[in-house]
Design goal:
The chain is α/β, with parallel strands linked by helices and 252 residues long. 35% of the residues lie in helices and 23% in strands.
Length: 252
Amino acid sequence: MLEIQHLTKVYEDGTRALHDIGFTVRDGEFLILIGLSGSGKSTLLRCINRLVEPTEGKVIWNGVDVTAASPRGLRQIRRNIGMIFQQFNLVKRSSVITNALTGRLGYLGDFTSMLGQFPKQDRLHAMASLERVGIREKAYNRADSLSGGQQQRVGIARALMQNPKLMLADEPVASLDPATSHSVLKYLEQLNKEDGITVICALHFLSLARRYGTRIIALKGGEIVFAGLPAEIDGARFRAIYGEEAIEVEIA
């Protein structure tokens, strides 16, 4: 179980991105974070694995205080937390399989990591991960030769290389068309249901959140303004989250 306790983040310029955030995530949930740009979704995700250091509060995962972990302890924790980024974060000039293999760097020694030498079993694992997301045949193509949706699937395969128990996805379909967005989210849904991986995913569109989320948390101005089931977000709650002038857009 993941516990977020009184989490606050204030950046050096004085921007308060999060204020006294608290909630729990049960193992096996597919939790969706929604809200406008600047609402705090990305900061919250990055505080969970300490890519961003919280100003106050705690992140406790399976009884371990992530916020208090030493550098060595944090490295151990991050092995089990996959991260999927909005802009894919691939090494464009490298092959697809090489990008997937970077998900194993946290398991290798520093010297091996520097040389980029991966054991045979890791290469087999990488091919299996690419197979799961439907791009095994692209393994030796350059990453920048792939479409946006295919690149995001490489990002998922890279995260799978960690054998994660928790997957954080930061606006993973923001730059993709509707059909490709569903394709990517269906892979995450499959991992959630078949492998029992807990997923926390930030999204803009409520229609996608309703389709894939088992629970929704909405942020506005760095605070939680809704936490509950997708079906509980009616017109009034939608306007409270997105503003009175907002119009709900369905992603077919």
